[in-house]
Amino acid sequence: MKLSDMISTFIDEVKKQLERQQNGNITAANEHADQIVNMANKLKKSGSSGKSELINLAKHEDPYVRLWAACNLDDTAREFAIKVLTELAQHTNEDYGHSAQIQLDFNM
């Protein structure tokens, strides 16, 4: 799979996961979450260019794409992940802000 396809799939899966979650279909949301993690792992296994693309996804305009990308960055980008999550956590009235704070509290 080409990097561009992995990036598109990652973004599409984030959108689908969010939609299913908001509609209360947790089973389907969890399936999309698994696909997001799968794509993140494929990007990381693609070498430095794949890892760079995952970092770029953590800069995406969609806060949920940023959230998922930041949560899946490896230890080499830990400081950047913390920065992204901290910025997202500032949005306390948004679900992504709450999720970012949980990630910071329990996984960073």
TrEMBL record:
Q: Highest taxon of the source?
A: Bacteria
Listed InterPro entries: ARM-type_fold, PI3K_accessory_sf
Query: SUPFAM superfamilies, per this entry?
Result: ARM repeat
Q: What is this protein called?
A: HEAT repeat domain-containing protein
Q: Which organism is it from?
A: Priestia aryabhattai
- Specify the taxonomic lineage: Bacteria, Bacillati, Bacillota, Bacilli, Bacillales
